[in-house]
Amino acid sequence: MARAKIALIGAGQIGGTLALLAGLKELGDVVMFDVAEGIPQGKSLDIAEASPVLGFDATLVGTNGYEAIEGADVVIVTAGVPRKPGMSRSDLLDINLKVMQQVGAGIAKFAPDAFVICVTNPLDAMVWALQKASGLPTHKVVGMAGVLDSARFRYFLADEFNVSVEDVTAFVLGGHGDDMVPLVRYSGVAGIPLPDLVKMGWTSQEKVDAIVDRTRKGGGEIVNLLKTGSAFYAPAASAIEMATSYLRDKKRLLPCAAYLTGQYGIDDLYLGVPVIIGANGVERVVEIELDAHERAMLDKSIASVKELVGECQKIAPSLGA
Ligand code: A3D
Q1: pLDDT band for position 320 (50/70/90)?
Q2: Is the beta carbon of 308 within 6 A of some atom in ligand 1?
Q3: Residues 231-261: pLDDT tens digits?
Q4: What integer pLDDT is reported at residue 321 of this predicted model?
Q5: What atom in ligand 1 is closest to the CA of residue 143?
Q6: In what order do the strands lie in the sheet with 267-278?
Q7: What distance in angstroms lies between residue 115's CA and the mean position of ligand 1's atoms?
Q8: Residue 292 pLDDT more than 60?
Q9: Any atom of ligand 1 within 6 Å of the Cβ of 11
Q10: Catalytic residue numbers?
Q11: How many other CB atoms sit within 10 Å of the CB of residue 249?
């Protein structure tokens, strides 16, 4: 059977890491596209030259032309600019929205059957714009944020409990931002929910609250440390986990920014919710019970996402409906 083809749109920090991880996991052949000349070509060649040492077989190609992504099975989009000092949120939205329009047109023309994972920020608005611009079915276009946010939550909890990260499960709902909703009740160690672990004396409520807060601000913590650029190892690993579930039909239940059609009382909006990803893309949106406090937090997060999408609709009315 032929290898799968993975197209990476954006060959920056996350794009390069995605290519390396796709190679290491032998997910398929990789095409890296970027508007910057030489960067995708150089990174692809560098990783290809590592393949004999690392022991994987994959063809890696760098390109500045969309035709090279033709027939891709998976497209992961990290193209865009980061927010720089002095740039307003609207300026960033304006620039990255134009990028999503270009990328969406490229995908529509050359890879209309692909499973598309958007990583570009502001995530919940950009995945919405990318789906509208590409016209691909909504179950084939998702955003990566929840896997990363949950991974951060899991790592902090494993560190607190001194247990394997593998035994910690955690749930994060809502938009990707400071008002994301880490769900304490649905998180725990090997099936023991966090509130029980507090009762068992493994930790205190104050420490759980601090971990929830650190999870919400996880992206900013890395930005402050790096000073230039934002997190890229964990974001790339998270997008690769989603791509793997699709390519191998694993039917993982992962929190992703998915298009809602009434679930959680929301219509025509992308929001971070648990979904099952298999060979058909988003095969199911899982609706979990929320208590009043959790619902209130989710509503706040929904309001922020709606505001961002509203701004996109103003800037690019053609994407509107
Ligand atoms: P960076 O290293 O700047 O890479 C972005 C790449 O996009 C650069 O190589 C640019 O040349 C390229 N690019 C710009 N415009 C275009 C275009 N029109 N077509 C194709 N390529 C283009 O950034 P990064 O890799 O660190 O991050 C990529 C994106 O991911 C940013 O928007 C980040 O904010 C976002 N991000 C999201 C998360 C989430 O959890 C959602 C986490 C971390 C980063």
Answers
A1: low
A2: no
A3: 999 999 999 999 999 999 999 999 999 999 9
A4: 52
A5: 41
A6: 60-63, 29-33, 5-9, 74-77, 115-118, 141-143, 252-261, 267-278, 281-285
A7: 19
A8: yes
A9: yes
A10: 176
A11: 12
